[in-house]
Amino acid sequence: MIGSLASIGAGIAVLGAGIGVGYIGGKAMEGIARQPEATGDIRTNMLIMAALIEGAALIAIILSIFLANQVPA
Amino acid sequence: MQRFKKRNNTRQQQNWMRNFLIILLLAFYGSMSAQGHDDHSGHNHDHSTHDHNHDHAAHAKGDHAKDDHAGHGCGHHEYAECTKGWKYDPAGTAMHHIADANAWHVVGNIYIPLPCILYAKGHGFSFFLSNKFDYSGNHGTGKKAVDRYILNHGQVMRITEDDFPMGVQDVCVVKDLDGHVTVNHHGKTYHAENKIVWDGGVIGGGGTSFYDFSISKNILTLLLAFFFLVFVFRKVAKGYATYEKQPPQGFWQRIIEPIFIFMRDDVCKPVIGPKYEKFMPFIMSLFFFILFLNLIGQVPFIGNPNVTGNIAFTMVLALFTLIVTTINGNKNYWAHVFWMPGVPAAVKLILTPIEVLGVFLKPLTLFVRLFANITAGHIVILSFVGLIFIFGDIGYCEWGIGRAGGSAIGMVMAVALTVFMSAIELLVAFLQAFIFAILSASYIGAAVEEGDHH
């Protein structure tokens, strides 16, 4: 039961991160299209931002994995 | 013109030959996995253990307790009947393969024994090579107990009962469905301590009654990485001393220079600011260390040590970042953490706890990100390889074409998907090393920034 709930939680966390990272990627593409000379800067910042969002989702996923795999004492 | 065309032709032929060889190698790899699956039908194989025990739990609970014939009788697992569900356990196999181990599994039945250095209160130190556990042909589960220690799926565990005899003993190690490990010895059942190694015992698993200082697979890989990087960077440094003000010479210098220049000019300089030179060694060590360990985890046939997918290891790296940030944080930085200038006092009461928490949350996300990305990549690749065995079961049980036939169908999918995923993982290996370095740099940059605002 806990395992199934944890899996659903991981899925929801991925959904949130997907929306966030997708938004960043889309905006970065817009920015690059508007100002191709700033591609390098935009890419670096895009990666940092994506990594920060990913971090929040990953914590949720890892907690889900731990919950799903916990060994009953 | 003629000559040029000829050369071009030869090159095309070479390319074609190389691609052919790569495909051949992959097919060979896949078929060997399938072969190994068939060969193990008569032996104890970890892929079978879970379902097998499930059958026993349901039908004959006392069977294992009676079964004191250690070694052969213990390790004899028949293929589960098709009606009792699939035999192969993809999740268990993936977890087994991403975990640290005390024996280096190369391929097939070839293991490199690693030294075990164990300390238990009341007993003292035990030194021995892990092949004393006699895990051969048993997929990393030992058929012998040494000084009350046992080897379960490549990991050392300790038997909790005090009356278990010391020295080398024949045992039968059984893992039940709940993850409890029991040990049968001369008709008596003993219990092993719960220990989860793949998360480093940080969450769940708890502490153990013994200390494990073993040179495990991950530790050996760390040492390898250390010596390799020292070798490469000494060579590169010597090259710069010899060929001063000249273009880079030699293999290593040419590989390292562009990466190094990129990291310096695009990461350290803009992110840390004018004091970047002081932190260059730290950021570069982080980057190249993580990069090498990520990449060595991708190499097949050498046991895929999953070092950066070990949460204890990434935690230590993030701890270094925390220490460097804390030590180098100037007045400005701490002011922004504890008592922000230019913010109303009521808001400060809310913001200060968040900022203090943030000091620790930043390294937390740093290590969880690296750990999760690399672990997820390994799990996905292992799951794709597991398709071979899943299809083998389906082919045997449903389609009536035997395990080999099903495995062959699964292999076609598994090879394509694994190649695709490995390519992505190669990108992730670079990206995660880069992100760890650039985020560490930005945390340090925030700590050393001189304030000239408000």
What keywords describe this structure?
heterodimer; A: 73 residues; mainly alpha; F1FO ATP Synthase; elongated; B: 454 residues; 2 domains; three-stranded antiparallel β-sheet; 12 helices; 59% helix; globular
Task: Set out the fold topology.
The complex is a heterodimer of chains A (73) and B (454).
Chain A: H1 2-34, H2 39-68
Helix pairs in contact in A: 1-2
Chain B: H1 2-39, H2 46-59, H3 63-66, H4 72-75, H5 90-98, E1 103-107, E2 110-113, E3 115-120, E4 124-129, E5 144-146, E6 149-152, E7 155-158, E8 168-170, E9 172-175, E10 181-185, E11 188-191, E12 210-212, H6 217-242, H7 250-272, H8 276-296, H9 311-328, H10 331-338, H11 345-399, H12 402-448
Antiparallel strand pairs in B: 1-2, 3-4, 3-12, 5-8, 6-7, 9-10, 10-11
Helix pairs in contact in B: 1-11, 1-12, 5-11, 6-7, 6-8, 7-8, 7-12, 8-12, 9-11, 9-12, 11-12
Put the structure in a nutshell.
Chain A is mainly α and 73 residues long. Chain A is built from two helices and no strands.
Describe the model.
- The complex is a heterodimer of chains A (73) and B (454).
- Chain A has one domain: F1FO ATP Synthase (Up-down Bundle), CATH 1.20.20.10.
- Chain A contains two helices and no strands.
- By secondary structure, chain A is an all-alpha fold.
- The longest helix of chain A is centred in the N-terminal third of the chain and has 33 residues, at 2-34.
- Chain B is mostly helical.
- Chain B is 59% helix and 11% strand.
- Chain B contains twelve helices and twelve strands.
- Chain B has helices at 2-39, 46-59, 63-66, 72-75, 90-98, 217-242, 250-272, 276-296, 311-328, 331-338, 345-399, 402-448; strands at 103-107, 110-113, 115-120, 124-129, 144-146, 149-152, 155-158, 168-170, 172-175, 181-185, 188-191, 210-212.
- In chain B, the strands form five sheets. Chain B has a three-stranded antiparallel beta sheet with strand order 4-3-12, with no helix packed on it. Chain B has a three-stranded antiparallel beta sheet with strand order 9-10-11. Chain B has a two-stranded antiparallel sheet with strand order 1-2.
- The longest helix of chain B is centred in the C-terminal third of the chain and has 55 residues, at 345-399.
- Chain B is globular.
